[in-house]
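pasting for ref
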Amino acid sequence: MPAIGQAAILLVLSNVFMTFAWYAHLKNLSGRAWYVAALASWSIALFEYLLQVPANRIGYSEMSLPQLKIMQEAITLSVFVPFAVIFMQQPLKLDYLWAALCLVAAVYFIFRS
């Protein structure tokens, strides 16, 4: 598999862990002290970093740093929207589509050369 594909898969998995580490405590640990949520988030974030660091190293072997960052941001939105709607039970908004279109434009401009 090409390095860009490997990096993308690892970044998707990393973003799943990151999203849960950053936001799941708002639903699951809202009644607990903030430091309990922080410890739980840090334990989840360990798995994020175990995937994100190799993803960035692999991706950087074939992409520029700006390309890698824009790809990561596009992946973040594609992971976050289903998380927000399905797990956090937030309403699906048309604004998600506009944000996604802006990221598609960013991906186009950063990769067009």
